[in-house]
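Quick start: read one record
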Amino acid sequence: MTFFHFAFLCTVLKPLFLDDKQFLNDLKAQKHDAFKRLLDEYQGLVFNTCLSFVPNVQDAEDVAQDVFVEVYRSISKFKGGSKLSTWLYRIAVNKSLEFIRKKNAKKRFGFKLSLSPGGMPLDKTSYFTEFDHPGVLLEQKEQKALIFKAINTLPEAQRIVFTLHHIDGLPYSEIEEITERSKSSVESLLFRARKRVKEQLTIFFKKEGW
């Protein structure tokens, strides 16, 4: 079990020091102890968020590590317009979506190659890995995989708000801050996302004979 696995299984508590000015100054000064505290306290939250968007444990770990690299590189640009935790969420979402775009591009390229004479065979293995996500309470791995497959069909904006609310369990107010959208915009995106996910799940479950 890696340290990220351990952090994922633990209850994530948001420490008060993230809003402490001295701590923020220490982060901007790139002090080792400040970044160690940030990593110790928030790697579980970041990993959970990445796993919500990228339902593969190994890839989610890689994305989470990229998040903290980005935080280290760009902390000096943080102006304090939002909570530091909100900024971390935003980076985690962006890095996860960036990873998904690259993976989808590779998948399309692989599909084209598989159609060409002598091309590589199409990989049909399941990307979803077994895990216990706090936002998905179903017992069967296959059902969880279908839920994430349905979410994967959503347009990006809908996918973000749906995942943050229904998988990560964030309230509307926090999603508004992370996405920098109005309450009415978040509500509208969620309404359309729920409708689409419900339609997709109906199709998937029928195909699987459930």
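Residues 1-16, 109-116, 120-125 have pLDDT under 50 and may be disordered.
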